[in-house]
């Protein structure tokens, strides 16, 4: 019967960890991350759920004769914002999965 107490204690710890992981994931999902390009002339904001919520363009970067540059700057800014999401997710959720080799 001694093993049952250890099992119950382990289950309680797992439930607590699961709750903490869910809370951390919810906080990440609600957070916004910004990426910038062109010296801050193009900014893209994304949520922790990796959804673009805002694109800000400095009017001086909008050149009808060079749409390609603007497109490239938007891609760079969006990728930077998404990289920040990944870094924060790994830093936050990694503490729960250390040594487990689990994907998020």
From TrEMBL:
Biased composition regions of type Low complexity, renumbered to the chain: 1-12
Cell compartment(s), UniProt: Cytoplasm, Nucleoid
Zinc found in the keyword field: no
Pfam families found in the cross-reference section: YbaB_DNA_bd (PF02575)
Primary site of residence: cytoplasm
Region feature (Disordered): 1-22
Source species, domain of life: Bacteria
Keywords of the record: Cytoplasm, DNA-binding
Chain segments annotated as transmembrane: none
HAMAP family: DNA_YbaB_EbfC
Function as written in the Swiss-Prot or TrEMBL entry: Binds to DNA and alters its conformation. May be involved in regulation of gene expression, nucleoid organization and DNA protection.
Subunit structure: Homodimer.
The family this protein is said to belong to: Belongs to the YbaB/EbfC family.
Protein name in UniProt: Nucleoid-associated protein ABNX05_25255
Species of origin: Lysinibacillus zambalensis
């Amino acid at each position: 019967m001694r093993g049952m107490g250890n099992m119950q204690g382990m289950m309680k710890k797992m439930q607590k960890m699961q709750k903490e992981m869910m809370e951390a994931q919810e906080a990440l999902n609600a957070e916004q991350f910004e990426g910038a390009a062109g010296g801050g002339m193009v900014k893209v904001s994304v949520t922790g759920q990796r959804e673009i919520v805002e694109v800000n363009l400095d009017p001086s970067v909008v050149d009808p004769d060079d749409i390609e540059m603007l497109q490239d700057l938007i891609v760079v800014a969006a990728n930077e914002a998404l990289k920040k999401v990944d870094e924060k997710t790994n830093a936050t959720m990694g503490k729960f999965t250390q040594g487990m080799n689990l994907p998020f």
